[in-house]
Design goal:
130 residues; mainly alpha; two-stranded antiparallel ribbon
Amino acid sequence: MDTSFSLRIDGNAKQWGGNNSPQGDRQNRRRQKLQALLQALKAGEMDAARLAFTALINFDPSISSDPYLHKIGSALQSSNLYAARHFGLELQNRGGQLQSSSPSNAVSSSSRRTDSVNGLPSETRIDLSA
């Protein structure tokens, strides 16, 4: 009995960076999940769109703050396919770029203070000696 295995070795240097890097792979998977959502909306498949939306948000929770994605989710939750399609088209017209909330941007501008003398960032100091 002869058993054979197929093995492919790719010597492409791109395997260690670029689109095949872990970050590039993550972006590709997010793009694929977004495309699945947009295709389900375009086809008018409410259940498939809901599943694709859930998969996308579970895969990358940081994009849940995207205004169009939020509107799509609200429309899907209320079974409003027309509105979900509309916001999906607007998202697609925007180039399919999702806004994500990153932890590095978590500090709001109102929590930063500048020194009025030299315009440099300063820390808020509270006197607790009283």
